[in-house]
Amino acid sequence: MPAEATTDPMVAHVAEHPWVAEARATPDGAIIVRADPAVTTAGPRPGPLLQEHLDHWAEVYDWVYQDAAGRHADDLDLSGWRASDTGLPLPTEHMREWLACTVGLVLGQRPERILEVGCGTGLLAHRLHPHLNGYVGTDVAPAAVHRLGRAGLPRTAFVQAAAHETSGAGVRAAMDAVFGPDVAPDCVLLNSVTQCFPGLDYLATVLRQALGTVADGGTVIVGDIRHSGLLTEHFTWLEQSREPGHETDLQARVRAAISADEELSFSPSAVVSMLAGQDWPVRMSVRARTMEDNTELTRYRYDLVLHVGAESSFDGEAPVRAVPWSHQPGEDVAATLRAALADQPVVVSGIPNALLNDGPAAVTPYALRQAVGELDAVVLLDPYDPRLLAVAAPAACGFLTVDALSALGGATGPEAHEPLAGFVRRRLPEVLRDHLRRRAPGLRPPRIVVADADDRATP
Questions:
Q1: What is the CATH number of domain 3-35+422-450?
Q2: String of b and e for 369-388 (b: at least 16 CB within 10 Å)?
Q3: CB atoms within 10 A of CB 16
Q4: Does domain 52-313 match CATH 3.40.50.150?
Q5: What stretches of 227-319 adopt beta strand conformation (E)?
Q6: Which of 184-198, 202-216, 325-339 has the lowest mean pLDDT?
Q7: DSSP label at 130?
Q8: Angle between helices 231-242 and 250-260 (to 10 degrees)
Q9: Residues 152-167: pLDDT tens digits?
C-alpha cells in the first residue's frame, strides 16, 4: 500500500490525540508531531508527560531503595551511589567525607528546623536531626519513607511527596506536628536531587515553593548539583575512561552521550535568572565541593546556598575587598592564603582549580579547605567560570545579591542540559503508536518523529 494511503488517515488519528498540537506526514511515510506545551508544563500541576518523567525516577529509586544493595548500616545506606565510569559503588570513605562536608555546609547555616526535599535513604536525616529542634523529610520513593518512618528518629517526620508538592497539605501537616502549628522551617534542603528534575521550569517551580516555604531570614540549600558548564569535560572523561586510548570520533561520541544524558545539569547563572524579579530578597553563595578524593562528585558538582529575607546580608562595617590569587611556585598554599585573608573582610578570587586546570598557581578545593582550617571562611566556586575557585572570609561575605551576580557577566558554558526534551522524543511516539493500534487495528503504525520545540510540525 502506498505510504500516502496508509499515512493520511493516521495523521488525522495522531492529530486528535490530546497530547499533540500539530501533525503532518512526510514524503517517506513518517509522521512528524509537535507536542502540546500543556503536556510538559511544570506547574502548578505537572503536565502528563512531565509527570511520567517524574514517575520514572520515582520507580527507579523505589526499586533501588527496596533492593538496598548499598546498605552498610541504618544510617549509611549508599544504595544508588555508583561511579558513572565503572558502575561500581563509590568508595565508602569518600562517601563518608561527602556526607561530612554536606552536614558541615548545612549546620554552618545554624538551622533549627529543616525540611529536606528528597531525603532518600536518610543519610542526612540521621546526622542532622540530633542538632535540630525538628526535621521533616519528603521523598517520592515509598520504600525510603516507610523505612525512615520506622527508624523512630526523635523530632522527625517523613512524607511521601514529590519535590513540587512542598506546599501540599501532607507536608504542612507533618511540619505542624514536628515544628508546631504554622511554624515554618528555617532551612529547606534539596541535596543530590535536582539531577532527577526534568528541566529548568520544574526547578524554578520547586525553588519558588522553597523560597515561599522557608522562614524569613532562613536558608534554601541546593546541594550536589551537576554543573552544565563542565558537562563536556565530564563526558569526555567518561568516554575516555570507558575506552582508554580510543580517540577516534571522541568529540562526536561525547556529543551523542550528552544528548542522551537523562539527568539535569545547570549552572549558577540559570538560578540567578530564575531569582531575578522575585518578591523575596535573596543572596546567593556558590560553594565548591571540597572532598579530598578526585572523583566526579568533587570535580563536576557544586552547592548553592540561598539566604532569604531582609536579614540575609553581610553586616560588616568594612567594605569587602577583592584580592586576586597570587600564589607562586614553591610557596606554601596555606601561607599564601592566610596572608591574603589577614585583612578581612576579603574575597580571594581567580584561583585555578587543580582538578580542572594545569599550572603552578592551580590548587585543589580540598587544599584550600585545609589551608583555611578553623578560620571563618568558605571555599567558593566562581559563579560564571566553574574552573576557578575563590575563598571568602568571613564566610558571610561570600554571599552576593542576585543583582550583583547578574552584573558579573554571563556563563562560560551552557546554562543547562535539560533531559525532558529527550524524554518526550522517546516517550511520545510510543504513546501515539499505541493510540494508532487502538484507532486503526490491523495497520502497521508508521515512524513517528517529535519536532524540536522551536520547530512547527505543519508544512
A1: 3.30.300
A2: bebbeeeebbbbbbbbbbbb
A3: 11
A4: yes
A5: 265-266, 282-288, 301-308
A6: 325-339
A7: G
A8: 110
A9: 999 999 999 999 999 9
